[in-house]
Amino acid sequence: MSPPSGTFEFGPFRLDARKRVLWRGGRIVPLPPKALDLLVALVEQQGDVVRKQDLMQRVWPDTFVEEANLSVNVSALRKALGEQPGGRPYIETVPRRGYRFAAPGTPAAPALPSLAVLPFIALSRGKDDAYLGAGLADALITRLGSTGRVVVRPTSAVLKYANRDPREAGRDLQVDAVLEGKVQRQGSRLRVTVQLIPLAGPTPSWAETFDEETTSVFALQDPFLSSRTGTGSGRGRSWSGPWS
Description:
Number of helices: 7
CATH topology of the largest domain: Rossmann fold
Helix content: 25-40%
Order of helices and strands: EEEEHEHHEEEEEHEHHEEEH
Largest sheet: 6 strands, mixed
Number of domains: 2
Structural class: alpha+beta
Low-confidence stretches: 228-244
CATH superfamily of the largest domain: ABC-type transport auxiliary lipoprotein component
Strand content: 25-35%
Oligomer: single chain
CATH architecture of the largest domain: 3-Layer(aba) Sandwich
Distance between the termini: 34 Å
């Protein structure tokens, strides 16, 4: 059998084969790990009958288990999935052969990566700079969200994470990466530093510094966006992430 290959949709469900997560609408369906492994193995075969022996080898590799273990997990899946319209079960028993998934999953479009832009931290002491940090974040949220290449958490969701640990914020907001920034006034100019922190990696994958006049501070959106593809004028590393 092939290894997990992606995301599948069937009925009201969405199965992420790589992350081993089953969704129904916006909620995760709680399932034992072995039941999820079994579901992935069946859905990937696109309606073909899978022998019990093959399923047991896939779900319990290098382990001797009784066939009753397979039956218990099939029952757990049937209970969690319910029935299709018309009363047909999602998992059918084929006598003397094995099991088949009766509603072959349709490969789903890859999910867009998700991002949280935290309010920028003001390094200067001016009261207006705190508002500036929130304003810069809001401008980037709007601009990045309009690209259609990334799901960006709204401003209302990120404001309470100002000055919080970015990884902690990212976990709470359930995103793939967090963008954090710092802003500092230097005379009539502003220096803004930003870095992208993927939750799956130990270090920032991209960092950049921008200098602009205070009169054109929101023009920082344009050099920021262009720098993601390596065309910006900043001195940091360009980022070749999934929505660059």
